[in-house]
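=== RUN LOG ===
request id: a7f3
mode: sequence -> structure
chains: 1
length: 127
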Amino acid sequence: MSNKQEKDEGKEMVDEKNDKVYPVKSLHDFLFELDKEWSKFRNGTLISLISSGVLFLFIVAILLRTRHLGLGLIDFVLLLFVGVLLAYSIYAMYSQFRFFNRWERRIGLLLHMEDEILAEKRGEKQT
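=== RESULT ===
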């Protein structure tokens, strides 16, 4: 192989490495997008938690009145199954809400640190 061919192949390999597509341009863009979407997810989890809790209470009230409603065994088992699934859903949403609250503080600290670092860099460049 000639030296020119080796250089051309080397350039192609370097070009392939430089053409990688990244999901975000920078850490700053990632943090900014995350901060914008964070409250939407946390509020959605809170709304789901409240609505599932109301449905769960409704199911429990129906289960307690099964004798008066004249529901059969299949209806009772179905309601019991739905109640168990709602209870698990509430547990999962509560865990998710705790996750969002815990990490919201950490993401806020990262954004604050980034602002401080950028302010220092701007101050150094101006002086």
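=== NOTES ===
Helices lie at 3-18, 27-64, 66-69, 73-126.
The CA atoms of residues 45 and 97 lie 6 Å apart.
=== END ===
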